[in-house]
Amino acid sequence: MTATTLSRPGASASTASTPADAATDASGAPAAAARAARPRRYLMCRPTHFEVSYAINPWMDPAEPVDTGLAVAQWERLYRLFRELGHRVDLIDPLPGLPDMVYAANGATVVDGRVLGARFRNAERAAEGPAYLEWFRARGFATHDPAHVNEGEGDILLTGRYLLAGRGFRSVSAGHAEAQEFLGRPVIGLDLVDPRFYHLDTALSVLDGEEIMYYPGAFSAGSRRVLQQLFPDAVLVDEADAEAFGLNVVSDGLHVIHPEPATGVAARLRERGFRPIAMDLSELLKGGGSVKCCTLEIRE
């Protein structure tokens, strides 16, 4: 797939490039010439019923007005962008009474065509897990209804070798063990300690294979040491960009779609040969989610 500069309403007008003959950057990571976008398959849910009527994370404030129409418009831009970049996007029907169903990443974890369903900690979201699992079951996927709390790709992120699994605010260690048994990938448990970063996908993102970026302050001291040992060349993000949800991104191996305010993340990605694309999802951030939260990857 060739990368193009796209004109999109509400998004950054350009992508960044690096010299075509550079094989690596200063850190030794692959530069633009060595990177390639790989077509992906995603599942998304239109925010037809989006609102903030309760608070289950520090970003939610029911007293702050929400413009559902604007949330839909911002989501539509992200949906169109994925398709412009050559990715397949499936849609699950939004259900009344489930305003957070737009955050599709929380709905399951899909690896090698096997679907580990989600079990939510908060009662307000409990019905989302069965809804997503039924979508996959109806399409012939091998599914597992979990016995323990795990909140899908919100807390389980796949690298080339590992399932990185967050715990501390939502998902639990027993859910990690269940994921390892069903998905057949080794799990690395990581302790989240800052309630602003209540899901792993707000504190860490997988860019390509074993390349990750993360905000160290979101993790316990022991988990930081684990990340340093496993990913010594990781991109480290500062607190300001982490607070802007700059780690809640989607990467296809070349393009990295990120929240518009995370300008520092964009600069670091360009240094590594990625092509950042900024998106305005400010209305959906009122529910505590951004680009990645809206996107569940289907790995067949």
UniProtKB/TrEMBL annotation:
Question: What SUPFAM superfamilies does this protein's entry cite?
Answer: Pentein
What stretches pass through the bilayer? none
State a single Gene Ontology molecular function: dimethylargininase activity
Residue ranges, annotated region (Disordered)? 1-26
Q: What is its EC number?
A: 3.5.3.18
Could you tell me which InterPro entries the record lists for this protein?
Answer: DDAH-like
In which residue ranges is the amino acid composition biased (Low complexity)? 7-26
Alphabetized UniProt keyword annotations = Hydrolase
The record's comment on protein family reads: Belongs to the DDAH family.
Give the protein's recorded name.
Answer: Dimethylargininase
Name of the gene this protein is made from = ddaH
